[in-house]
Design goal:
Number of helices: 10
Keywords: Cell membrane, Cell projection, Disulfide bond, G-protein coupled receptor, Glycoprotein, Membrane, Receptor, Signal, Transducer, Transmembrane, Transmembrane helix, Ubl conjugation
Pfam family, one: 7tm_1
Protein name: Prosaposin receptor GPR37-like
CATH superfamily: Rhodopsin 7-helix transmembrane proteins
Number of strands: 2
GO molecular function: G protein-coupled peptide receptor activity; prosaposin receptor activity
CATH topology: Rhopdopsin 7-helix transmembrane proteins
CATH architecture: Up-down Bundle
Subcellular location: Cell membrane; Cell projection
Shape: globular
Order of helices and strands: HHHHHEEHHHHH
Structural class: mainly alpha
Length: 374
């Protein structure tokens, strides 16, 4: 059979080529911002002693999954959109939806865990800041999040198939589509599981990955805010800064939930249209809607670390310190500054009291200065 020439999405210049250029530019921007931001969050948490709390471990875990989604899924999705071929064939058709759904599970459970941790902190601010979360406890919580997300996403591997669509005339290059179709070659048990999951997928997706984190975050944040206001009325002067930082962290968790909910809405719309209105909607429209839903997922993975770096002063300070060291723009040596010791002490104290850090009332000189190991 004669091999058809490879498709060039950028030439000749047509309406579709303009769309290809737009998709390429947007994806490069999302990829660059997301990779840099998520690596920064992970490095900040790993390299700072005062940032190794359960909340920061959860945020670093979320950054790790966002990095995986951007690094592995985004290039393959864009390659398929431009060439209409799956780079790794059947494997990429199955693994990309699996990773995407697993990342939604990680985001959902992480938001819930952050809400629980914030409620625990608001219930007893002084006690919370005098205890350390040991590594075993943190690893156990992260393991539960990983196992829950990975297991709940496993049925996605059963319902995907790669279909090659032959077009007319024969000179036109055929397209490959990754469709929801359960293979009859599966064992009976897996085949029934795939059918059951496929029939309930729309509402399971909507309930578990949208309603659960949204409603849980709203309810928990309201209760936590009431606890914080109560603590403000009964607190002594020394605890007020801790309470203010707790309020800030509670607001940031709400912001993360709003971003997550906003970016997951297109996926739910795409699922509803595909299930209930697929016969009356052109195939190209369905493909565009699916692409938009995937791009919004990548957008969420890229904007989440930016949101943390902008809203959280300890994160932004550590990030700027690292950039300053890497580019050798730190200015004159600290020893030449008359108030350098005071400034360093203030920065460390702020990190110690931060809701993103675990605090022990010890001499800060026994530990490294809060900052990255650039």
């Amino acid at each position: 059979k004669r091999r058809l020439p490879d498709r060039n999405p950028f030439y000749p210049v047509t309406g579709e080529s303009y769309g290809a250029y737009a998709v390429m530019c947007i994806s490069i921007l999302i990829f660059t911002v997301g990779i840099v931001g998520n690596i920064a969050i992970m490095c900040i948490v790993c390299h700072n002693y005062y940032m190794r709390s359960i909340s920061n471990s959860l945020l670093a875990n979320l950054a790790l999954w966002d990095f995986v989604v951007l690094f592995f899924c985004l290039p393959l999705v864009i390659f398929h959109e431009l060439t209409k071929d799956w780079l790794l064939g059947e494997f990429s058709c199955k693994i990309i939806p699996y990773i995407e759904v697993a990342s939604l599970g990680v985001s959902t459970f992480t938001l819930c865990a952050l809400c629980i941790d914030r409620f625990r902190a608001a219930s007893n601010v002084q006690l919370y800041y005098e205890m350390i979360e040991n590594c075993i406890s943190t690893a156990a919580k992260l393991t539960v999040i990983w196992l829950g997300a990975l297991l709940l996403a496993l049925p996605e591997l059963l319902i995907r198939q790669l279909v090659r669509e032959e077009l007319e005339p024969p000179e036109v290059i055929p397209c490959e589509h990754c469709v929801i179709r359960i293979s009859t070659a599966l064992p009976d048990t897996l085949y029934v599981l795939g059918l059951t999951y496929n029939s309930a997928r729309l509402w399971w997706y909507f309930g578990c990955y949208f309603c659960l984190p949204t409603l849980f975050t709203i309810i928990s944040s309201v209760v936590t805010a009431r606890k914080i206001r109560k603590a403000e009325r009964t607190s002594v002067r020394g605890n007020r800064k801790q309470i203010q930082l707790e309020s800030q962290m509670n607001c940031i968790v709400v912001a993360l939930a709003i971003l997550y909910g906003f970016c997951i809405i297109p996926e739910n719309i795409s699922n509803i249209v595909s299930v209930y209105m697929a016969t009356g909607v052109p195939r190209r429209t369905l493909d565009i809607l699916h692409l938009v839903s995937q791009m919004m997922l990548f957008f969420k993975s890229a904007v989440t670390p930016v949101l943390l770096l902008v809203l959280c002063r300890p994160f932004s300070k550590a990030f700027l310190d690292c950039c300053c060291c890497c580019f050798e723009e730190c200015g004159p040596p600290k020893s030449s500054e008359p108030n350098s010791d005071d400034n360093d002490q203030d920065g460390t104290t702020e990190l110690e009291l931060s809701p993103y850090s675990t605090v022990v009332r010890r001499d800060p000189s026994t530990f490294p200065i809060a900052g990255t190991h650039c």
